């Protein structure tokens, strides 16, 4: 309770109050109204697109990995290393992750050079750029996919063998079982995890700032510029930007909590 009060509730209240204060401390709606400027709306739109793309790709890839280690034909010993790696990778972000992807997919990165020298494929000539929408989405997938694996694996483990056997007895094929039995049961978990991954990507700032700097205008970078910048400094506009992020991530986390509770009730 004390930890949540000091590091979550009080800072959040300070942000909310600061969003409705001017430089002199007087009450105002101007900061919130400034969120509707074209440049700020564009930053929100880019952040939403990146979050949706990384969350969707992370859900798809993570689901197949989780299914493979849970009910697939992979050797059982692979489950432990996959889950251990997922636990580590889901928390690997910030400057180290940005540097790792620059060293891998940068213009002189390892993969970029290997593709160019060994296979004659120049990904940058084809339009790829690590300092872009696609590059940042790819980087986010490094922690989005493992997080999906960690969350969805217990849900897949909860699928009872009797359900599969009953479907087979009634003449259902494997695609029919997944479409009519398994996926409807897993749907609340999948939807909730998508919302959680969206919130996870939407609030990421260290990785995006370290990777792209100011070349990609997303909300966390714009917020950083307003709070700490030398030219664009306007802390109260930064509070308003943070308030918008709190609202969006709060909605996403609310969806996750509701769907998670429903999924747990269905599994029981």
TrEMBL record:
<keyword id="KW-0812">Transmembrane</keyword>
<keyword id="KW-0813">Transport</keyword>
<feature type="transmembrane region" description="Helical">
    <location>
        <begin position="204"/>
        <end position="225"/>
    </location>
</feature>
<keyword id="KW-1003">Cell membrane</keyword>
<feature type="transmembrane region" description="Helical">
    <location>
        <begin position="237"/>
        <end position="258"/>
    </location>
</feature>
<feature type="transmembrane region" description="Helical">
    <location>
        <begin position="82"/>
        <end position="103"/>
    </location>
</feature>
<keyword id="KW-0997">Cell inner membrane</keyword>
<protein>
    <submittedName>
        <fullName>ABC transporter permease subunit</fullName>
    </submittedName>
</protein>
<comment type="similarity">
    <text>Belongs to the binding-protein-dependent transport system permease family.</text>
</comment>
<feature type="transmembrane region" description="Helical">
    <location>
        <begin position="42"/>
        <end position="70"/>
    </location>
</feature>
<keyword id="KW-0472">Membrane</keyword>
<dbReference type="InterPro" id="IPR000515">
    <property type="entry name" value="MetI-like"/>
</dbReference>
<dbReference type="Pfam" id="PF00528">
    <property type="entry name" value="BPD_transp_1"/>
</dbReference>
<feature type="transmembrane region" description="Helical">
    <location>
        <begin position="177"/>
        <end position="198"/>
    </location>
</feature>
<feature type="transmembrane region" description="Helical">
    <location>
        <begin position="123"/>
        <end position="156"/>
    </location>
</feature>
<dbReference type="InterPro" id="IPR035906">
    <property type="entry name" value="MetI-like_sf"/>
</dbReference>
<keyword id="KW-1133">Transmembrane helix</keyword>
<feature type="domain" description="ABC transmembrane type-1">
    <location>
        <begin position="44"/>
        <end position="258"/>
    </location>
</feature>
């Amino acid at each position: 309770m004390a930890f949540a009060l000091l590091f979550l509730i009080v800072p959040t209240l300070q942000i909310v109050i600061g969003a409705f204060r001017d430089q002199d401390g007087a009450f105002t709606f101007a900061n919130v109204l400034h969120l509707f400027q074209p440049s700020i709306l564009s930053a929100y739109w880019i952040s939403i697109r990146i979050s949706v793309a990384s969350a969707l790709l992370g859900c798809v890839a993570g689901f197949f990995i989780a299914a493979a280690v849970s009910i697939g034909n992979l050797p059982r010993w692979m489950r432990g290393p996959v889950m251990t790696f997922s636990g580590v990778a889901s928390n690997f972000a910030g400057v180290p992750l940005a540097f790792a992807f620059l060293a891998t997919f940068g213009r002189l990165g390892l993969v970029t050079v290997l593709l160019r020298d060994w296979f004659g494929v120049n990904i940058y000539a084809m339009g790829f750029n690590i300092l872009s929408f696609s590059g940042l989405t790819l980087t986010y997938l490094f922690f989005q996919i493992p997080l999906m694996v960690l969350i969805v694996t217990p849900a897949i483990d909860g699928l009872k063998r009797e359900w599969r056997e009953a479907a087979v007895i009634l003449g259902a094929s494997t695609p029919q079982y997944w479409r009519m039995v398994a996926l409807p049961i897993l749907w609340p978990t999948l939807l909730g995890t998508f919302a959680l991954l969206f919130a996870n990507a939407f609030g990421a700032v260290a990785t995006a700032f370290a990777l792209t700097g100011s070349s990609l205008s997303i909300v966390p970078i714009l917020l950083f510029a307003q709070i700490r910048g030398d030219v664009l400094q306007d802390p109260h506009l930064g509070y308003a930007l943070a308030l918008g992020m709190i609202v969006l991530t709060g909605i996403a986390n609310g969806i996750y909590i509701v769907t998670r509770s429903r999924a747990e009730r269905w599994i029981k």
